[in-house]
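Ticket #4471: structure output looks truncated?

Reporter: J.K.
Steps to reproduce: submitted the chain below (184 residues) through the standard prediction queue, then opened the result file.
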Amino acid sequence: MADEQTTPEHRGGVGADEVPTADSGSEASAGRRKPSSGRSAGWWAVRVVVVVVVVAVVGLMYLVSITLNPDSGPEGFKVRRIASAAEKYLSKDPNVVSVTVIDASADIGGTEANLDVRLKDDTSADAVAELLASTHDAAFGKNSPDTNINLYVTLFWTLHGTSIKTTYDCAGRPDLLRTAGQGF
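Returned output as attached by the reporter:
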């Protein structure tokens, strides 16, 4: 038989009636290899390449998308965060009656936020200048280099019986905003 072993007990008939032990059966299978399950190194390499290609294609599609529509990318998030911070800050000021975010978007033409602010009547020019400068600090925080975002604040109020409507770009330096407010 093909399964017979050539140990001394099988040669001469001595111990021929004995049943092989578990150890002798495992010795016969020790030389055999386990059948391959189909997961060779080539199979894993193909999987890794497919994952890398999918990630690269998705990344390229995202980059094209935010290039064509910057509002869906990080610039859009940043401008909405700045507009929200400015609105929150202005709404807490005692000289402000109402604040409305008109627009906060990033597009190919530029990144800007527009706010309409209604002030209490007879708010002084110094108070307006300080409000604009402090709005810049509140909106941009320590990230003043983010001046590629324009924050336009349109102010409405009445001063000594005269209706005033003026728009400022609060993305500039706060000290210049304080100086600009002195011109009322």
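Triage note (M.O.): checked the attachment and the full token line is present. The radius of gyration is 39 Å.
Status: closed, working as intended.
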